[in-house]
């Protein structure tokens, strides 16, 4: 993966290089794990619902609230700790806990839905990092490639 560009806005995001690398590694590994178990779905099944008569109903609609929002530098005025609830939404400060939540919600037929929409769960410093430090190829690879980002 390419190094951060110090000339881009947001490169002084407050995330250390080690934190940025950990985030890249964890999200890439999570996407690869999700892709390994991805299910293409039932051909011809309309809408965002996957049903198998012998299995439980799986809702494929995207709701970022199901995972929560990752903001490692969320203002402590909202509460202290690795995660806080603001209104009805969960905000994660701890990248490892956020990644666990992504894994829990992105298994089976939901893997592609989570992969393609995960960036909508990034807030504040994490969103700035995603937009400023990853180039378009890396962002697209995270969304659509079964192998995530590979150098």
Shape: globular
Radius of gyration: 16 Å
**Secondary-structure element order, as H and E?**
HEEEEEHHHH
Q: Structural class of the secondary structure composition?
A: mainly alpha
Unreliable stretches covering 5 or more consecutive residues = 1-11, 39-47
Provide the helix percentage. Answer: 25-40%
Give the oligomeric state: single chain
**Main sheet characteristics:** 3 strands, mixed
Distance between the termini: 6 Å
Number of helices: 5
Number of strands: 5
Q: What would the average pLDDT be, to the nearest integer?
A: 77
Indicate the proportion of strand residues. Answer: 5-15%
| Widest sheet, order of strands | 3-5-4
Summarize the structure.
With 151 residues, the chain is mainly alpha-helical. 38% of the residues lie in helices and 9% in strands.
Question: Can you describe this structure?
Answer:
The structure is a single chain. This protein has helices spanning 17-36, 95-105, 111-117, 124-133, 136-144; strands spanning 49-50, 58-59, 69-70, 83-86, 89-92. It has 151 residues and is mainly α. It has a domain at 25-37 and 59-144. The strands form 2 sheets. It has a 3-stranded mixed β-sheet with strand order 3-5-4. A two-stranded antiparallel ribbon has the order 1-2. A hairpin with a 7-residue loop joins β1 and β2 (58-59). The longest helix has 20 residues, at 17-36. The chain is globular, with a radius of gyration of 16 Å. Residues 1-11 and 39-47 have low confidence and may be disordered.
